[in-house]
Amino acid sequence: MENKLLNLYHDTGIYQLELGQFVMICVGLLLVYLAIKKGFEPLLLLPIGIGAVLVNIPGAGFMAAPVYDAAGHMTSPGGLQYYIYHGGIETGLFPLIIFMGVGAMTDFGPMLANPKTLLLGAAAQFGIFATVIGAVLLGASGIMDFTLADAAAIGIIGGADGPTAIFVASRLAPDLLGAIAVAAYSYMALVPLIQPPIMRALTSKEERSIKMEQLRPVTKKEKIVFPLVVIILVAMFLPSAAPLLGMFCFGNLMRECGVVDRLSDTAQNALINIVTVFLGLGVGSKLSSEDFLNLETLGILSLGLIAFSIGTAAGILMAKLMNRFSAEAINPLIGAAGVSAVPMAARVANKVGLEANKQNFLLMHAMGPNVAGVIGSAVAAGVMLSYVGG
């Protein structure tokens, strides 16, 4: 009887729980708290947090691989998160479906009405390449054990585009996927806290008060032709970016063509919501104590913050430079929206602009570089995959 009770106790999570697992369960609960109480990117932080809790429960086997006998018959099935991760994240399936849904929710109108904002979206990607160089230098100096592929995957965090970061990391640095995904989505969620101080530091009140002219109307034909042109150009010049931008433009074409409203509605709502749940649980599965609690993770989180900050600053500085040569005034705040956190970065630019001038409504102007940033981060990802992965 005592042996049975002892065996029962040895099977409990209390007996098997290690310190690292306890710490990561607390991290998962912190993400849940930030999602529920603070509203920080709840659609992803909530499933990621729960996924982190589940994968660190000792003996539960959520991430256990299936076991086969000598004849190839399965003797023990794998855990839920094992199949979610390997079926949807390792293959890159979930990020691509997310991109299709985001495309179906995106209006290219503000960017097409003011094509100059493409430059702001491009400038904001400078943080990606600056961080890649920084990560390479850290690896070369021996401070961190980062390879070139690791550096490329870490740098993508600067685009503040979670699906792109996951897509690139799953191909170039799958062992760093958990830390990269959490960093990318954390900084996306913290845009309202990170960006305003940088905006105020790099602009004067007079610059923040600049009112921009109303955007011209964009025709339906322009909105239909644009995603088709992007798909063809990307396929011809940068095929490695075609999976991301191809799905993004396909989703947008469904929205704008007006003949597949049911498909567009599904991509914008039911499909993207279902995939978001599994994506979050899959990312959370990589937050096990052995994968996450190390010096490399702290380095990734630090480099990700630097990348995001540099991208924000580069967008603002590019807007200030363009303002010197443009006949029409450009508010530098919209340059900060060049990062891919859609539409949060645009909302932050609008909010900071209203603080300087109560009549200064920048939201639609900021959506131009915001959408351009999505394209820019996908192109940067394609460059990384082609240069490093090739």
TrEMBL record:
E.C. code: 7.2.4.2
Keywords from the named record: Cell membrane, Ion transport, Membrane, Sodium, Sodium transport, Translocase, Transmembrane, Transmembrane helix, Transport
Membrane topology: Multi-pass membrane protein
Xref: Pfam families: OAD_beta (PF03977)
Major localisation: membrane
Protein's cellular compartments: Cell membrane
Catalytic activity: oxaloacetate + 2 Na(+)(in) + H(+) = pyruvate + 2 Na(+)(out) + CO2
Keyword Transmembrane in record: yes
Cofactors: Na(+)
Regions that span the bilayer: 14-36, 43-63, 83-106, 118-140, 176-194, 224-250, 270-287, 299-317, 329-346, 366-388
Subunit structure: Heterotrimer of an alpha, a beta and a gamma subunit.
Entry-linked PANTHER family: OXALOACETATE DECARBOXYLASE BETA CHAIN 2
Record's function text: Catalyzes the decarboxylation of oxaloacetate coupled to Na(+) translocation.
Protein family per UniProt: Belongs to the GcdB/MmdB/OadB family.
Protein name according to UniProt: Oxaloacetate decarboxylase beta chain
Organism of provenance: Marinomonas maritima
